[in-house]
Write a structure and sequence with these properties.
The complex is a heterodimer of chains A (304) and B (354). With 304 residues, chain A is of the alpha+beta class. In chain A, 34% of the residues lie in helices and 19% in strands. Chain A starts with a strand and ends in a 12-residue tail after the last helix. In chain B, helix 1 crosses helix 10. Classes of the chains: A alpha+beta (304), B alpha+beta (354).
């Protein structure tokens, strides 16, 4: 397998809701195998600092199913490999690299490596621009504040490694420019999130149709639509119209690039991408249901 | 300058745009072919508009020098998002036979004698035009619309108008310094010459697979069918009067714009009753056909109006409500799972192709 990114880190385990560190020296690697699949691996390190023996963990990662991030807690250098849809698969690591300033670069690089469409693109090889300042997400030119969400162009693993290497090398000399770090982080996480299913994928018109029949549903949705479209039939039609799907696409993009302030929906901030957003919605719905079941009557139904 | 949103290049959008700007009796129509029959079926045509993904190409053709004296309205393209609207305005401003409404007439008078860039600025600064143009996207969407969709929707598309003015056919390209005279022409042969010029352009672009579209600025078809229907009905009355030896109806005034001039002498009807009867059924058949066309056109307008309502609707609050409702009913998770499975399956399929 080709090694794309390496990061010295130790494992952590969740024991009764607390993170407990495994003291052994270790190495995180994102690799690519012969068929182009990304692997997330952890090896123990030997006295010389090299990977010892077989990988203790070797997980095949499908683009879009997880993100790698640093847990936001001052003074801690704990990282999480997060699967929004399968929390039981989440993994935690503690940094063993000496220079904390480079953490963000590594996070960006690992995200890109896990979620890039390497050698698998249907769009033909365009080659990635190895630009240390602004990692080109998936072959498209970097855009300020966001990432082109279109499918990745194919690149080879050596090109990817080279580009990521230059990100990491570039950081060695940097003065800790907060703007660039943040931009790289955003772009990397965005690349991750944009590879997964979109809102339009989730709101599949065929699967939705039977769910939109009930008068309750129609009544609930009607106030959000123009007068002429407030019937069950009109609502079923709306979800397959190009206008609706176009707006869903914009919305998915905004979610993926972190441009959307989720607090305007009454949701907690943070998280990237569609799957995180949907988890928040589900969490909020569950919470409201619990409140309604309280003996004291609970909160009102609708939260504007 | 205030913001202009991107709008779809769609005849339904443009036709309503015309209406909202105060233009009467005009609509836009998408053209799939430049052959004579296709063009004849939508006459009267006031101008043609060719849309394509703009790319730099060398053009050594000289710009017309005396176009201003000849009464040609030419404005530079100042706002990239408004190129469609501007091309349409260009056609309208160059057709004195049309009722373009007070706003556009005022703009035309106000900018008479201005150089092209100032004309372009005047259009760009027109709140009326801008507000109508912007009314074809959702108001204050929750979600930024800036960069990525522009290329699909029209920002990178360029529009060139072809319109006859004062005996000459002009190509109006807002990115050039002035209009280009293509040929001398009359009202009855400019179309053929414009079609030839456009066909030549399409030939150039076909090699490089540039996407393009063609639109025509034509008389409102409801108005046209209505007028022709009235003409048939009047003819029928005349024939029936003659057959029944009764008083013929008063000569009909020609309603509506375009088409044949009013006050023409009516054609003399044949004397022979059989011929008259034949003419009558012919007219009745034509009237039926026109009624059908009119009904189809009304239906299409209803569909266009509905689509424009959709374009104006901000669906994000609705989408959020939908997702919340599904979540509350436990119906969201299965949809997410299905989407993830489909996504994974697609990915695995691609890997297998390696």
């Amino acid at each position: 397998m080709d090694v794309i990114v390496e990061f010295r880190a130790g494992r952590m385990a969740l024991v009764e809701n607390r993170l407990v560190a495994d003291p052994r020296k270790g190495l995180l690697r994102v690799c690519q195998d012969e068929v182009g699949l990304s692997h997330f691996c952890w090896y123990e390190r030997d006295a010389a600092g090299a990977a010892a023996g077989e990988a203790e963990q070797d997980i095949v990662i499908i683009p879009g199913e997880c993100t790698f991030s640093k847990i936001a807690r001052p003074g801690s250098r704990v990282f999480e490999l997060r699967f929004p849809e399968e929390k039981q698969r989440n993994l935690f690591f503690w940094a063993q690299e000496v220079a904390a300033e480079d953490d963000d670069e590594y996070v960006a690089a690992i995200n890109l490596a896990l979620n890039m469409d390497v050698d698998g693109g249907e769009d033909g090889g365009e080659g990635m621009q190895a630009d240390a300042g602004a990692p080109a997400a998936a072959g498209a030119p970097a855009q300020p504040g966001g990432v082109a969400p279109s499918p990745a162009a194919a690149i080879t693993s050596s090109q990817l490694a080279a580009a990521l290497g230059s990100i990491l090398a570039g950081s060695a000399g940097q003065q800790g420019d907060a703007g660039t770090h943040q931009q790289q982080m955003q772009q990397a996480a965005a690349a991750a999130a944009s590879r997964g299913p979109s809102l339009a994928d989730v709101l599949n018109p065929e699967l939705l149709a039977p769910l939109l029949q009930s008068p309750d549903m129609v009544q609930r949705l009607a106030p959000y639509l123009p007068e002429q479209h407030r019937t069950a039939a009109a609502i079923r039609e709306i979800v397959s119209t190009p206008q609706f799907r176009h707006q869903l696409g914009l919305f998915s993009n905004a979610l993926s690039t972190g441009q959307l302030d989720t607090s305007q929906f009454g949701l907690p901030a943070g998280g990237f991408g569609v799957l995180d957003f949907l988890s928040s919605i589900q969490a909020q719905a569950d919470q409201q249901k619990q409140q309604r079941q309280q003996p004291d009557g609970g909160a009102a139904d609708m939260q504007e | 300058m205030a913001e202009w949103t991107t709008i779809e290049s769609d005849p339904g959008v443009f036709s309503e745009l015309l209406e909202r700007m105060g233009v009467k009796g005009v609509q836009m129509e998408e053209l799939w072919s430049l052959d004579e029959d296709s063009l004849n079926s939508i006459k009267p045509i006031y101008g043609l508009i060719f849309l394509f993904k703009w790319q730099k190409e060398a053009d050594a053709r000289p710009v017309s020098i005396d176009y201003e004296e000849r009464g040609v309205f030419f404005a530079s393209q100042v706002i990239s998002n408004a190129c469609a609207t501007q091309a349409i305005v260009s056609v309208l401003m160059n057709r004195p036979d049309l009722e373009i409404g007070p706003e556009l007439a005022q703009l035309r008078d106000f900018t008479a004698g201005f150089p092209p860039d100032m004309k372009g600025l005047a259009i760009g600064n027109s709140d009326t035009i801008r507000l109508v143009h912007n009314s074809f996207s959702p108001p204050q969407p929750m979600v930024p619309d800036k960069d990525e969709e522009d290329n699909e929707k029209g920002d990178a598309f360029h529009f060139i108008a072809y319109v006859p003015v004062g005996g000459c056919l002009y190509e109006l390209d807002g990115l050039k310094p002035g209009p280009i005279k293509l040929a001398d022409c009359g009202e009855d042969d400019w179309l053929g010459k414009a079609a030839a010029a456009i066909t030549e352009r399409m030939g150039r672009y076909a090699a490089s697979e540039v996407k393009f579209n063609l639109m025509a600025c034509i008389e409102d078809r409801r108005q046209k069918y209505g007028r022709e229907l009235a003409q048939q009905q009047h003819l029928q009355e005349r024939i029936r009067a003659k057959l029944g030896n009764s008083q013929p109806p008063a000569a009909a005034a020609a309603p509506g714009g375009g088409g044949s001039g009013g006050g023409e002498e009516e054609e003399e009807l044949p004397a022979d009753p059989d011929t008259l009867a034949a003419q009558l059924s012919e007219s009745e058949a034509e009237a039926d056909r026109l009624r059908q066309q009119l009904e189809m056109e009304e239906e299409r307008r209803r569909r266009w109006a509905d689509e424009n309502v959709r374009r104006r609707t901000d669906y994000i609050p609705f989408a959020f409500q939908l997702l919340s409702a599904l979540a509350e009913r436990g119906e969201l998770q299965p949809l997410v799972q299905a989407a993830r499975q489909a996504h994974t399956a697609k990915w695995e399929q691609r890997q297998q192709k390696q």
